[in-house]
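Structural prep section.
Before we set up the soaks we want a predicted structure of the protein with manganese (II) ion in place, mainly to decide which crystallisation condition to try first. Input record follows.
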Amino acid sequence: MSWFSRLCISRNDMKNNISTELFALAHKAKSIAITTHIHSDGDGMVAAFALQEILRIKGFASTIITDGEDLSRYSFLMDKAVHQPFAEGMQYELLMVLDCNSRDRLGPRAALVDAAEMLFVLDHHVPEHGVISADLQLIDPHYVSAGAMIFRLFERDIMGFEPSARKFISEAVYVTILNDTNNFSNANTRAEVFQLCACLARQGAQPHLLHQAFLQNQSPQEMLYVGHSLASIRLHLEDRVLFLHSDLALAKDLNYDPASAMSVSRYVQGVANLSALAYFQEVQQEVWKISLRSLKLNVQEIAASHGGGGHRKASGLTLKGNLQEVQDIILKELSQAIKKL
Ligand SMILES: [Mn+2]
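Run finished without errors. Recording the tokens verbatim:
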């Protein structure tokens, strides 16, 4: 493995050189895999569909390696996708890691990094610890999504593709932006995001259809699951903290796989006058996946002190116990954090 590594921060430099260098790596490789972080999302996974199509048109076959997660949310973009769940012993000469820059965010698929002879890393997260050493590395936190980076990186190539390919890639990139801006509501929704989206719309991406397909396409069962979860809303700490939950019994009643839901927390994120909210989802018997959201408190600190993590305003963690026990733990943490305000 050549450990020549470059960190490219300049956006002009990025456009001019990296795509050429990436195709040169692809020429040398007998096999190519694309992968993204654990608990894949509508940025990393959908950016992989876009990149796979670009590579395919350029004559390079590739396989997207997943954790075997449910990809049905993206089915409207997956007609041509070639993907496989990770299995031990898998080996690809060139590995492309999207929307992720550290080994520990790859879970078991970090083995693909060790087995690869050439590595390409493309990400827009701030590098923290354990940045993967790559032959070609592009980490630019300025970008709204990994998909947006791919579009700008290959823009000249994409504009030379057939209209149907341009449309497909533009749709995928638009979805990565919907995902990472949470429908243009996060602080990363800047002028250049709209400029890029205008360009994607000119290539045939239709915002209303993509919004429907990606953000509104819930099954009636999922909406029942959401509705029952919303009915569990309770307020604590003088109405400053909102709790809601979905237990396994509910999922069983509705014959619904909770792993396929978008976090129910998105439905209560805009509730007025809260210091914080916590959504408790039972994913196995007495194992609760907890989403913390706050515009005031640093919930990343709370999550990290229980083995979780994320961002200041949005974090997650997992706790074991019955509902009362895990809610007591979180309530105590939030109460302490509020006192410190
Ligand atoms: Mn992302």
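Observations: The chain has twelve helices and twelve strands.
Flagged for discussion at group meeting.
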